[in-house]
Design brief:
33% helix; globular; 15 strands; TIM Barrel; 492 residues; alpha/beta
């Protein structure tokens, strides 16, 4: 394990919210800055089509080892004067057989984000990916490793194969992930395979640093399974409570809903921290941990520290739309009610998903009903076996007739929302569709949204460094207490 373990880990929020600016700021302040790898190829090409203000993406791209790959992307997508109101040119959709173009975009995009997050300081930087979004994951990891990423964080599934993939990629070797496929039999062996040497001709194939792997889990049982049965070494865990923003683990047992239609979590969903301590691997707590009190509580439970998302998501440096951040911060300043709702069916992934209920978002009933169903980004599509034995891709948020023709059920389409387009809209990359429809935003946050009031009591905005400083102060206090009383001190 790395000799330096962060106390504060910034969450890997959404598509483009945890961007390089946020991660860079957190790392400079002494935390672990984390970039989100979700949809990053589209994030990059949309930035280029918006003119790449400041030239930051192109500066990072100039450091990529193969400039011909970079030039192909720039020639196709960069618009020096921006789109001027036109629709974004879309990236190709992912398929189980990874194309040259999609691999190049994904590897370069992750390289760019990590390179910029690491620029100008010696702090640690991590990459967050969702296990559920399988097709982009291996080239995403490879691109981040080319830029020297220090940590990889992954949840939203059981990332048992990822540690072995990191081992393979560190030596530029072929890696694969099993592809869960509806309708597959025990005789099927569907995989997504990535061999760097099939896509790139580097002059230097020197080994890459193998990043530390932190699995995001919701129970000690899952953590123990990963520690024992993963394809390589798991270096630690982030224990994510169901109050965290974005995708949540579903409740254990039969699904029950409260009077508002939210999943009910119970005693079976609480964590046995003693078992985590027995495992001997460092762990961090996540979910409603954005206060000094929670940092203190976490460290008393034996945690290395905490992962915090919501407080960072509404800071100056996050990629969330400035107007959205300002609106939420102002409402909290005025003590207005800002409701966070856990929707059990919104995500095509099948995981519950937390949103801020707000007018003019995709969770406004009128806005949702006015949106023509369309799946043109496809990150949350799932694989299914066609009648001819080949693989297909479908999404419960695509047009209902299309989904049913692919063998999906009508029940799976009820209440589903296009998270992909909604989350892109939330970072000012809303698509203009062919019929003139402009995609509406989705805002995700954790249940402890009210905790950011401490940062906006006397002002309208706050920096990521302020969040780190407030939370680090609590950790320093408890460490001083432990030293004074000769108690074991968490390694930092």
């Amino acid at each position: 394990m790395s000799e330096i373990r962060p106390i504060i880990i910034q969450g890997g929020m959404g598509i483009g919210v945890s961007n390089y600016r946020l991660a860079n700021a957190v790392s400079r302040a002494g935390g672990l800055g984390v970039v989100s790898g979700s949809g990053l190829n589209s994030v990059l090409i949309r930035r280029l089509q918006d003119g790449d203000p400041g030239g930051h993406c192109r500066r990072a791209m100039s450091a990529f080892p193969i400039q011909s790959v970079v030039q192909n992307i720039i020639e196709k997508y960069f618009l020096a004067e921006g789109r001027k109101g036109a629709a974004y040119k879309r990236a190709p959709l992912f398929s189980p057989k990874l194309s040259q173009e999609i691999v190049e975009q994904t590897v370069v995009a992750n390289f760019v984000e990590v390179w910029l997050a690491k620029e100008g300081h010696s702090g640690l930087v991590g990459l967050n990916l969702l296990e559920k979004i399988i097709l982009p994951n291996i080239p995403s990891l490879y691109g981040a490793m080319l830029a020297g990423v220090d940590y990889v964080l992954m949840g939203a599934g059981i990332p048992r194969e990822i540690p072995g993939v990191l081992d393979k990629l560190s030596n530029h070797e072929e890696a694969f992930l099993k592809l869960p496929t509806d309708g597959a039999s025990s005789e099927d062996n569907f995989k997504v395979i990535f061999d760097p040497k099939n896509y790139f001709q580097f002059d230097n194939w020197a080994p890459l640093k193998r990043p530390e792997f932190l699995a995001i889990v919701s129970s000690a049982v899952l953590a123990l399974n990963l520690a024992k049965k993963s394809t390589g070494k798991v270096n630690g865990f982030i224990i994510e409570h169901w109050t965290a923003g974005g995708h949540n683990a579903p409740p254990r047992g039969a699904l029950q809903l409260d009077e508002l239609g939210q999943p009910i979590y119970g005693a079976r969903d609480e964590v046995d921290f003693a078992k985590f301590c027995e495992m001997g691997l460092p762990f961090w707590l996540a979910g409603s941990c954005g206060s000094p009190e929670k940092v203190t509580e976490a460290m008393k439970l034996g945690a290395q520290g905490v992962q915090v998302g919501t407080a960072f998501a509404f800071s100056d440096e996050s990629g969330m739309s400035e107007s959205v951040k300002a609106s939420v911060r102002q409402r909290l300043q005025k003590n207005e009610n800002v409701t966070v709702y856990t929707d059990p069916v919104a995500s095509p992934s099948g995981f519950p998903f937390k949103v801020i209920e707000k007018e003019n978002t995709l969770f406004d009933k009128k806005v949702y009903e006015a949106r023509p169903r369309k799946c043109d980004l496809g990150y949350l599509r799932s694989s299914y076996k066609k009648e001819d034995g080949t693989l297909g891709q479908r999404c419960a948020s695509e047009p209902i007739d299309t989904y049913l023709k692919k063998g999906g059920t009508i029940e799976d389409t009820v209440g589903r929302k296009c998270l992909c387009n909604g989350l892109f809209a939330a970072v000012d990359q809303a698509q203009l569709q062919d019929n003139g429809y402009v995609e509406a935003i989705i805002i995700t946050a954790g249940d402890d949204l009210q905790s950011i009031k401490r940062f906006v009591e006397n002002k309208n905005h706050y920096s990521a460094a302020e969040v780190v400083q407030v939370l680090q102060r609590a950790a320093t206090t408890i460490q001083a207490f432990e030293i004074k009383n000769h108690a074991p001190v968490a390694q930092i």
